[in-house]
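Q: Structure for this?
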Amino acid sequence: MKISMAPRPTEEQIQEVRRKLLSAGYSVHRMDREGETLLCALGPADFPEEAIRRLPGVTEITKITKSFKLASRQFCASDTHVAVGDVVVGGREVILMAGPCAVEGEDQVNRIAEGVAQAGAKVMRGGAFKPRSSPYSFQGLGVEGLKILRKAADTFGLKVVSEVMDISHLEPACRYVDILQVGARNVQNFTLLNALSLLDKPVLLKRGPATTIEELLNSAEYIMAGGNYKVILCERGIRTFNTYTRNTLDLSAVPVLKELTHLPVIIDPSHAVGIRKMVAPMARASIAAGADGLILEVHHDPDSALCDGQQSLTLDQFRVLTVECARIALVLGRTLGPEGGLDTKKAGP
Amino acid sequence: MKISMAPRPTEEQIQEVRRKLLSAGYSVHRMDREGETLLCALGPADFPEEAIRRLPGVTEITKITKSFKLASRQFCASDTHVAVGDVVVGGREVILMAGPCAVEGEDQVNRIAEGVAQAGAKVMRGGAFKPRSSPYSFQGLGVEGLKILRKAADTFGLKVVSEVMDISHLEPACRYVDILQVGARNVQNFTLLNALSLLDKPVLLKRGPATTIEELLNSAEYIMAGGNYKVILCERGIRTFNTYTRNTLDLSAVPVLKELTHLPVIIDPSHAVGIRKMVAPMARASIAAGADGLILEVHHDPDSALCDGQQSLTLDQFRVLTVECARIALVLGRTLGPEGGLDTKKAGP
Amino acid sequence: MKISMAPRPTEEQIQEVRRKLLSAGYSVHRMDREGETLLCALGPADFPEEAIRRLPGVTEITKITKSFKLASRQFCASDTHVAVGDVVVGGREVILMAGPCAVEGEDQVNRIAEGVAQAGAKVMRGGAFKPRSSPYSFQGLGVEGLKILRKAADTFGLKVVSEVMDISHLEPACRYVDILQVGARNVQNFTLLNALSLLDKPVLLKRGPATTIEELLNSAEYIMAGGNYKVILCERGIRTFNTYTRNTLDLSAVPVLKELTHLPVIIDPSHAVGIRKMVAPMARASIAAGADGLILEVHHDPDSALCDGQQSLTLDQFRVLTVECARIALVLGRTLGPEGGLDTKKAGP
Amino acid sequence: MKISMAPRPTEEQIQEVRRKLLSAGYSVHRMDREGETLLCALGPADFPEEAIRRLPGVTEITKITKSFKLASRQFCASDTHVAVGDVVVGGREVILMAGPCAVEGEDQVNRIAEGVAQAGAKVMRGGAFKPRSSPYSFQGLGVEGLKILRKAADTFGLKVVSEVMDISHLEPACRYVDILQVGARNVQNFTLLNALSLLDKPVLLKRGPATTIEELLNSAEYIMAGGNYKVILCERGIRTFNTYTRNTLDLSAVPVLKELTHLPVIIDPSHAVGIRKMVAPMARASIAAGADGLILEVHHDPDSALCDGQQSLTLDQFRVLTVECARIALVLGRTLGPEGGLDTKKAGP
């Protein structure tokens, strides 16, 4: 149930509603948006609608009909801005996250961090804990990798996003990482999602290759139900009969998710297509479709990468792509890149 | 086999190669591109490579390894421009084709034609022969519909694209239509493709919901093998587990096809997503991905359309979309819209 | 609308209902089943329910809610038996159709016909008109192939099923063939379906690789709407992300179709899996799932077949499979094979 | 690398090979099969082939080319029998596992256990830890549920299979459960697989809705790489464009897996189709396709089940199905049911 309050309610009014709901056996979630306070009550079916409606400051009580509640537009009409320090995902600025598939060593990470930061990325990506289909593939540098990422990111003014596969990864990841990534294979690892719901850290939740839109939003709901509302959704390709590309990028997920949820939506074109020269067209298309950001694999020397080199952009390709994406962002009234986006005077062809 | 000739070969040289190949039992295809002449020999496995290589003007003989030959980039490296009068599909200009799902009457078609022409469309779409899943659904106005389309298009300076389902449709369609559309359900109707291969009319070939990229190019090859090289490919969504959208737009088909073939590639976002408010984001994304054009359902009164109204744009929505698409086209160094595209001075935000 | 008549109505009663419906603008379909007469009226929305209900012999008027009407169980509760001479598809006996992918010559067809007839097949399959993805693949022997099939089938007491791709194939096919097959690529070739609806010949309608159950039944409805009720449905694999098998056999289509329609359902495991050693397990499973028959590729020398040899059973494999299938059929209370099925006394292991 | 030893090698010979391999940096896996000893060395690429080949008792060294090694038929040609007390999965007997989706209480579990045991099931299934798409759905009784299962199973002579979602579930599950199930959502939860690899407990590994055959076998490899070779594979439906059934049962996975691996393969038709009346046909088909067993949802009162009642068989339906399956098993030379399978004398119709 969504409980709408009059504009700028007093804290006392809010607390009274909260107390009433708690005492009736409901858990209460609260989001504050530009002078508006949204309350969501989750619990028993026979909601005491009359009693709550009579409380001072309450203007309306609405049933949220979707299976996901806190994640739904029905609950919260305005877009969520997930702040990572001074970087905001989901606002007017389109955010680029870039870096290698896997952290291989300090030199590699530094060179890539410098390159992507100069080109306009705001967040450094890189895998330290690597989920691999085969037990015999390279499994990542672990905590050592996280430290390398942190140091390089700090040097070049970047935030860090990195994958956690497991509850045991949360403690070190919280120390070194700004955004905790849940990989496609763990999108319904409910134990992990429950643990993340108790943290005060942004979570980047990747859709799995056969996850429906509703399942993805229910997985986001797991994280939000525990009180962590800082969820960023990410489409990275679904499994279809297509064999030419690694997966099939479902770009229509962007407008569909924007309709159903207030959470930010970013795209990972690298994993979706799996072929270097197909990444840039799909990255541009993602911005044009309305994505709030991109997460891209970039490597200073893709041909010698330990993992997924064939789908990594070179630093030069990334620089060109950034300029194109910035110009497309402008068409949609958004910005991207250094100093709050490309200077509009340079936006002509 | 691809036979490459020296730059600007004499017609006599070309004819001698042709004669030799024909007498050895091969069919010979010829494309002329900016001073370059490409010859393709199709036939028996034991190609007389030595004898042909020795002919004057022949510089190189290359095996085309793909299953499709004439459609492949291996045969022809430069992009094919399909000219429809003064409208060129596959060149620098991005072409918009727009109109109703089905022709319903003269007034409807005129109002839509006027609107889409003003907004920048170059081609009018509209179904006169309608393939419908159920025998009890509206099956189109037939030849009467084609006449209505032609008249409206002529009034507003548009070309006409319309679907043919059958050999019996070809004669009237050739009289009234500029581009013959093969629908998704007929992408492997080889009888129809063979008949189209003998015409001198551009063909818009739609990918089916489960057609692989290679199958689509082999269907194009059917049309080209008979001598009709004017084929425009169209992606319109594939079938996946997604249920929120009507189909799943496989936008990565654009860069994949651009890699494999020299034929133009356009996108039909209306059928792909099937929901009005998702069409514009996917249309913009298509341009950003490098599509050569769009085919869109537009209706002056979508809610009373006889067919697919829920996925048709209003004329107002189409006008806004056209401007956005024109600006994105500029980012890619292309043009779109009235008078060869948006004036670049107005391209800022 | 389904109009139910009292048991054993007089012909006059039936004709009066028919006349009333025709004069009200409806087309009227009639099926006679063991003393029961079913009438279906198709036409305008405002059905004259009251007037018809009052006619002598009419007991009930029921709305058929599915998009397919004549094909639905709602219209006809009892199973349709499609008789092909003395062979009945859809009855207690499970029918095997077997033969080569393509007719290659008289000797080949004779050897295979003899083998499959001895093993228990009742129908000979073989392609004379071959739809091929590439224009450069073997396209079949055409009418000559049909004659070869007919002769071999007559020699060994078999019926013939063969594919038609086109209206121009219907005339010769009707002369030489007992069951006209519509291939997966033509499942929504409505021109072809309409032409078949006017014939008095059984039609084997194959589901396409991305055809939904509802679309398949609507395609059957196209054939039935013209008055040809002898439709046999065939599942032959759908397209999924699986790459190990050629397609993914959707065996649950058998119970699903049995629920929705009274038409017989057979399975083509050869095209579904595309690998010889996977065919027999899937054939056995099809019988166990309740299929009314199988259509199988069998070749006396698969390794030298011109088409699809890798998925053809040898004659020896077919003989073993027939015995296994006959035993499984017995478990379901059905028969299969020579003289109305395996002797039940030999059915133990 | 597979190291083959002469028949009945001495323990000393085996140990010497093992020592050599360990000292060269390899991990060594050993399986003993009817007098044959199989050794598998996993580790660095430059295998000391010459040195090992010279050791006494070594007859052949073969490279295992698949990405999965211990799970491959290349490593072990004969079928693995997973023994659960006196119940053997993967042998001549087809094993039925049956029970409710979720454990709801003692009475429910007892009634179902009694019914399925009488009908011929050997293993009781039931969820105590329930992975649910929505955080607001019933999540299971936890350890209490495991105790209820254990007690009921012991009373009626059954083994127990139940799902673990998490490392924290392993300790209680090992105490009360005979086979640990990994659900479809956790098929690539590598942390969980690694933990299971260190246990001496059979694992039932379910394929996910978009898991390829190779990925499934690599997930099995994770469990085997740690030394736990008791893995049972389970197909439970994949995601396709079909909407009529919950998932699409990929029954061809049975012959495909039997070709690639020596591990037992069972089928879960209940989750695959999701509709009660479709379960029995698919269960019969599974046996006919060669499955080693079934895991089925059975409930004494499906309409009041807390979870998945619409796909649960009644006890009566389960009894009928068991008899049919036993008869089909006999056709394949296998047994099923009470006292080592149906009495063959009663197998006639």
